[in-house]
User: Fold this.
Amino acid sequence: MRIDEIEIRMVRLPYRSPFRTSFGADVEKHATIVTVRSEGVEGYGEGVFDPMPMYREETIAGAHHLLRHALAPELLASGCNHPSELTGRWAQWRGNPMAKTALELAVWDCFARQQGVPLRHLLGGDRTEIEVGASLGMNPVPETVASVGWHVEQGYRRVKLKIEPGWDLEVLTAVRAEHPSIELTVDANSAYTLDMADRLLALDSFGLHYIEQPLHWDDMLEHARLAEMLATPLCLDETLTSPARVRDALDLRACAVVNIKVGRVGGLQSVREIHDLCVARGVPMWCGGMLETGIGRAHNIHLATMPGFVYPGDTASASRTYARDIVEQRLEAVDGVMPVPDGPGIGVTLDRGFIGEVTESIETIR
Ligand code: OSB
Ligand code: MG
Assistant:
């Protein structure tokens, strides 16, 4: 495909309520929507880098710099035969998986639309709907218990609680008292250290499905040590930034469950490689979320149809996070099941009027 134009658009969208994790509270999304125009067809990707390096180290400023001065010019100059080749071509620039993914996703969507097929077809996803769970930010205990109850009533297949040291045993005790048997997990976003192992061992008594990223955001060895002590399986999120990192983590037994976020691992081609590795080794995977707008959310739904995604993902209803989305289609789960948006590519279209209202900047590169 010849690439005619690449657009980098920043949108700011308020959350319905602040989302609090162990790395801070956020009140709004700063999303980058990348549009690729090729032979009269558009495709869309979303960047999940943040204003500040709170989750991993990429930032909006750094990602935009790379997109503007390296990735977009390379793509415009060379075009693309198949989106699977981009990750290899862009390996000349080190790291920065989120920046690369924002553009790679737009090319995948555009390519699928040109072929007239849903994106999931290109990924080997055979499902037309996926089971989903919900990730709950940190809130006072009574609110959290009520929120878990609401999500269970809505049919969500798994509930994940954000925790940190001192905000763990009490909230879990209260939630388990009301919901002794729901599929429950916790996510610490790297808030613990290995010398707090006693506190982490106490989590074993809550029947958790897995514990997500308790230790340092780039660590494998200490997670492997912790995994030996715990009965509950560990799941890594932040640490897993490429297929090679996933292979190493599995070799070291640093995790038994894999959270996939396409932006964190460097694109859909990396997701496919990790997927095949995890399937070959019998390791369960699930699709994480970064509170994406409808563009990133639709991408997540499509990739989560691949057969190795066996646990419910964080790809919950858009309306939990946003009063109004930037796509025309409503991405809503019914009884804990999210239908895959139908139609070519990711199956969603921009709400032109509304996205105009929430756009902060647009840059076009030719
Ligand atoms: O660790 O999974 C995480 C949101 C932002 C950054 C990191 C994480 C999250 C979530 C939200 O848990 C999941 C969602 O998109 O609903
Ligand atoms: Mg996480």
Notes: DSSP finds 14 helices and 13 strands in the chain.
